[in-house]
Amino acid sequence: MEQSFNKVLVWLKGEVKTPPFSSQARIEVGYLLRRLQQGKSLSMPQSRPMPSIGSRCHELRINDNEQTWRIIYRIDEDAIIIVDVFAKKTNKTPENVIKRSQQRLKQYDNI
Fold it and tell me: Under a CB-based contact definition with an 8 Å cutoff, are residues 25 and 85 in contact?
């Protein structure tokens, strides 16, 4: 018999609440995170790999009413690590977000 288990969510930084997220965007984030917890793979347009941050790192892409949100996460064997939540304002992920995410993951891995 196949055993079903959900990966835990580990929040290193950020939160998803209304406001600033709309209720619809918050529901979408919850749905996508649940799929990740269940071991499902996400791809564009919902998620894209972020090798510039590290292996197994991705960003969720949430289009809200007047704002675009990004959630940086890493898929570990037993957990989904939420590294950062931020409002996307430019086409390119800001360098400070990449560096900050790398530092948070390094600290997490050294615990």
Answer: no
